What does this fold into?
Amino acid sequence: MSSFSDAVSLEAQPSYSDSPEFDRLNADISDTLFLLNNNLVTLGRLVKAAQNTGGKRDVVGRAIDLADETRDRFKTTGEDLKRLKEWEDTNAAQRFTQQKLGREFATALNEFQVIQKRLAEHEKQEIQMDKQAALESESRGDSQQQQQLLQQDVMTQDFMNQSETDQHMTLISEREEEIRNIEQGIEELNEIFSDLGTIVTQQGTIVDNIESNMYSIAGETRSAASELNRAARYQSRSRSRQCCLLLILVIVLAVILLATFI
It folds into this structure.
């Protein structure tokens, strides 16, 4: 006989046509989670490549753009998941779906936060390098200016030095803005994670209780079946004893009757 866990599989149950909106949300969230996980794989590779190439701007730019897109998807999916988790009058299979999607979302979001922090930390290191390069450029410009005062146009040299310094400062400003956006996104997603975490915990308790009750019911069912089998065997033995007693009684009566006529 198959076990109860094999006989009952909530995840394998068909979708419920009487809740089309719930089913639609479920499908949308599942599809988006698939895309998000693909984005996380690509984003992780881009961040690693940026670290290995010394912050090459085209690689970093692609990572920033993908992080922005992924962050927006997480926000939208978080709102959809919140709606799904606040759904009323759900059955056991739907509560199982809520819990499953909540855990998958939390796992993906946590991984994204880790990648975002790595990206922000990388950008901070690049800013320090740009600032150091800007200082070296200014220092180099002052030294060259002193050496070339009598050899070439000072205004031209100043313009070249200032242009190089401005370029470094522009890169620094861009990266500082990128870091602010990343850190703001991390905070916003942390709030979503916190809200959903509370719901996940609450529903986790509900689902655990449901599963516990189901296994308890299954145990009681098996116990009741065992008792019925024992009762059936007892009744069978009881009927056998009654038949034996009846047969003995018939024999005794037959002997008495024979003795009377003889």
